[in-house]
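Chain A, query sequence.
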Amino acid sequence: MTDTILDSAASVTQSPEIIHVTDHRIACDGGNGALGHPRVFLEMGEAGEVTCPYCDRLFVLDDH
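Chain A, predicted structure.
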């Protein structure tokens, strides 16, 4: 019988970074300087949250 060992890093899904903001319109550049992505401007809309299409960061509008 052959034993199968799974790499634990391959089976763990990393959750997106959640960033709390106070404005409905935000800009995201990946946050890593030259290693980031092109700056995109995102609009929250009525949902109160938006996900960056490049890096999957989740921006959530604070209720303050």
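The chain has a mean pLDDT of 83. The chain has one domain: 15-61.
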